[in-house]
Amino acid sequence: MRRPALLGLAGLVLLAVCLIAGGWRGAAASYLAAWLVLLALPVGALPVVIVAERFGKRVRERGGVEMLAGLRRLTALMPVAAVLALPLLAAAPLLYPWVSAPARTPLAALWFTVPFFAARVIVYLAAWTWLALRFAKPFDAPGEGRTVPAVGLHAVIGTLFVTDVVASLDPRLDSTLLGLLVMTAWSGLAFAAAILLAWEEPEPVGRGRTAPGRGRLVPLVVLLALWAYLHFVQFLIVWSANLPPEVAWYFARGGWVGRALAIVAGAVVVLAGLATLRPGRPTTRILAGAALAIHALEMFWLVTPAVRDRFVLRPSDVREAGMSASGPSGLIPAILAGLTLRGSGLLNGRPPRPAANSQRDPNDPGHETRDVNVRNTVLVMAGLALTALAVVGTMVWLMGTFAASQRRALPALTPQQTTRLAPPPPNLQADPFADLDRERAATAAHLSGYGYRDESRTRARIPIGRAMDLIVGRSLEPAEPAAR
């Protein structure tokens, strides 16, 4: 008990130093970022455990028993993460700008209030805790009745949680992808942590065997690729549309530290994809460690610029930070997470090595031999098509309804607004080619007809053809006067 007590005392001392040096708001931002890293371990592992529960037999046959056991150990941290959220609820007035800013809509005035915010966060964490406890142990038989609603509940809770806790810190970014992006990052972080904590599976034998490490590397690469794709799509939409608030949000997270993090993250994703060509256990562990560090720094990349308006690493951060990259207060969740891991047996030495699997059946083809269920596949595709049509139809109807309601709300136009006004001359030519044709016709009529050139009718004009006939053959010199 001496060692945990000393660690807890050290954490309290560092928290006091952070409060004195950086103030309450800086300490709260650092705590929030570090707490999100801790929360990512159980919450990120939860959907992987749920999906693996659906395909439990295949997971065991493909040598994923130890990984699944490691992910279940991570979900056991959910109650501790929920308890550590209490200081954040108390610090909400310091962190979130909507506490003092006027509400833009009546719904925002109700939604963004401190009591309702605290109640929603408690509900989110309670639902995640319930899911973690429900899937803490494997079921006797897989069942879609448990897994499908659980995945749906997790997706809804995660989207709302990220919107309330992370996105509302800096309202300049209005993105519907942020919830899915953060949940993907959490799952990648938890899976990378499970790779580092779990024992290696025995070498596969028999037909259909795969290279060592491939069973863990491929899911990690899929999570990293999906995470990178979501980041790229969100950045591309913001930059191509040139949205000033969203661009300012990215500029606040730029600088040399933000760019370096983006370059390193892209390099890790590319190297992870290349590693699938020649997988290996050491390579998988190295990439898992890199992914764990990148996703942990990403939480600080999301949170700290909302307070500092830029993503930087200060000397105090580098000197004092342990798990956190932006404040010594992040050591508090790190120490408590370490104590929890120690209590769960993860820091007392690795769990006992499992017994070696029996050799595979030489006649085992190494892949699924059952046919695809055509009926279920057709029903799923038809359901997706109908859902897409329903969504598009609903959107068209809503847009038409809103446009009609806006037109009805406008005041009626006055007669002065509806009267057609003709501007005073000179006006622009409506049809310059027709005007040119009329001018040419008038000139041709003037040259080919008879008429007087003045009002007193003392001078006349004749057609130009007749004048040429009269002139031809005559001298243009004036006649000399006759001699007298």
Average pLDDT level:
77
The amount of beta strand, in percent, is under 5%
- What is the N-to-C order of secondary-structure elements (H for helix, E for strand)? HHHHHHHHHHHHHHHHHHHHEEH
Structural domains: how many? 1
Strand order of the largest sheet: 1-2
**Biggest β-sheet: count, sense, barrel?**
2 strands, antiparallel
Record field, number of beta strands? 2
Number of helices: 21
Shape: elongated
- Which percent bin holds the helix content? 55-70%
End-to-end separation: 155 Å
Structural class: mainly alpha
Unreliable residue stretches: 315-337, 339-358
Radius of gyration equals 39 Å
Notes on the structure:
The protein is an all-alpha fold and 484 residues long. It has one domain. It is built from 21 helices and two strands. A two-stranded antiparallel sheet has the order 1-2. Strand 1 and strand 2 (460-461) form a beta hairpin. Helix 1 packs across helix 9. It is elongated, with a radius of gyration of 39 Å.
Give keywords.
about 475 residues; 21 helices; elongated
Briefly summarize what is shown.
With 484 residues, the chain is mostly helical.
